[in-house]
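Annotated sample (chain length 128).
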Amino acid sequence: MKGRMINPGKAEAEAIVSKEPIGFYGGIDAKTGIVIEKGHELEGQSVTGKVLVFPCGKGSTVGSYVIYGLKKNGVAPAAILNEETETIVATGVILAGIPCVDGIEIDKINTGDRLMVNADEGIVEIIS
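Output written by the structure step:
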């Protein structure tokens, strides 16, 4: 799949996929990497070391700093893929140095798929 590089870098990891937007502020615990938003389809799951795949972000601009906090605390996703990366997520991945690609058809990716992300080229491959 070919998308647009939001922040460069490369990662290979298991995907965790949400069909729902993710709000990082109040949605993911920056100390643990666990999704804490009540009723979210990923509630209780960890994003740590995974390729976090979701349509777009939502919510407060503080979400950018939560993404940075995930990285600082060693519990960040290995990469982030979106249909559309909005300003909050873009700022967060740049601050944190997390590879990020958007313009990806996320419905082609399932939780548990192993992905190779080359954000430098905007390329995402499902390798298993």
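Annotation: The two ends are 14 Å apart (CA to CA).
Annotation: The chain is about 15% helix and 25% strand.
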